[in-house]
Amino acid sequence: MGEDVLRPGQHRLARVQLFNWGTYDGYHDLPVARRGFLITGPSGSGKSTLLDAISAVLVNAAAQGRGRTVASYIRGAYARGSDTETRELRARYLREGATWSAVGLTMRTAGDDGDTVTTLIVLFHLKRGSNDVGESGRAFLLFEHDLDITELRHW
Q1: Which end of the chain is more exposed for a tag (fewer CB within 10 A), N or C?
Q2: Range of the domain at 88
């Protein structure tokens, strides 16, 4: 079976896009081959962060264990340390102030008339000083074409 042959009606992940998700700071674009790909790497390299991003779009969930929350992904939590003034243990973030994150999944569906392309996106916004996603903002978007999440910067 050739690589370009798909079963009609079968949805395939073709692209994963991240903007400010976890320690993936800034924009990252990961094309997915039709045959798939292997996610591998040492501990702490971002494998779970990538899978949690995909889950945030598909099932409106990201891992809540291991000290991870949607807000910690948006803020880019990367370490826990003692505050120099209060000596309290607190998370250290890549993004402290008001910030936004986006995760986009582009799906291709084979049909009799060619491929149909759909991009599923979830956008998150946190206000300065807030770690409550419900208080700040979340939007789910659906586009019937391949869309760069960078086009949504003015959301």
Answers
A1: N
A2: 11-152
Torsion of the alpha carbons at 80, 153, 54 and 108, rounded to the nearest 10: -160
> Could you tell me the two tokens for 124?
């998150």
Q: Is residue 5 part of a domain?
A: no
Residues 6+ apart with CB under 8 A from 36: none
DSSP letters for 80-97: EEE-TTT--EEEEES--S
Q: Of 123, 94, 119, which is closest to residue 108 (Cα–Cα)? A: 119
Residues of the chain with pLDDT below 70 are 1-7, 61-67, 155
Residue 3 within any structural domain of the chain = no
Torsion angle (degrees, nearest 10) of CA 141, 21, 133, 121? 10
DSSP state for residue 38 in the 8-state scheme: -
Domains in the chain, number: 1
State if pTM tops 0.85.
no
Residue 129 CB contacts under 8 Å (≥ 6 apart), including other chains:
none
Q: Are 71 and 126 within 8 A, CB to CB?
A: yes
CATH code of the domain in which 71 resides: 3.40.50
Closest CA to 90 of 74, 73, 78: 78
Within 8 A by CB and 6+ apart from 151, the residues are: none
